[in-house]
Model the fold of this input.
Amino acid sequence: MRTTILDAVGILSYAGALFIVSSGLTLVFGAMRLINIAHGSFYMLGAFVMTTVAGVSTGLRFWVALVAATAVVGVVGTAIEVTVMRRIYAKEHLTQLLATFGLFLIIADLAARFWGNESRTVSAPSIASGHLSIGGATFPTYDVVVVGAAALTGLGLWLLLTRTPLGWRIRAAVEDPELLAAGGTNLRVLRTGVFLLGAALAGFGGAVVSPQIGVAPGMDAAIIVSAFIVTVVGGLGSVVGAGLGALLIAATQTVGTSLAPSWASSFIYLAMIVILAVRPWGLLGIAER
Done:
């Protein structure tokens, strides 16, 4: 019972972090068909900004830093969209991959020069420090914060996409951008807004998990691989699919670690292969027309 609860909390916490980052990635692809390797860079920037603003504070400053990190990364993402991304939307996916990989390398180098190569830490807020006990299992209270942040992110995106005019336009952009533009929607502004939201979600994800990990160069590469797996498994463009994909990958990783620790990373690739063999477009994705 104790092990089961610990595994469940660990899966939900890891899946929550993956979902926050992957939701931004799949949102950008769904609305703009843009494959963005630099999405992992936004995650890393969010974590680094969090360490700079929050430091070791456990009070109000932590929450201010969380908002600041999200906002700063959103601004950086907007600047990149205006100067670079607008020029590659209509290009083939290989060109997008090369361009965003170049951005990935540039941002990684700038981050290393600005923050250094040493690992940094962030203290959890005092209200979420310590541990909780359920059924004899003890786990960090902050895990609940991560799960709650993921749940609020999912709810917020659902409300945005289904209950607001902006959300309707984003979904319309996925289905038929030409018709949407003919109806008077400024696609350039819409794409900038979607990219801003995707970058901000990545920065928010990095800031949220910073108390759980060592913030250091290289975390951008680690998360982008996992985020792409979640996005592909869930279905490119599907936010709900990203949630299901995150849960599946987190559970697979946990089971793999228990059964064969030295092969744990292989289990998630195996899960992806099996799913794509059955549904090449992912769990909730739509086959390309």
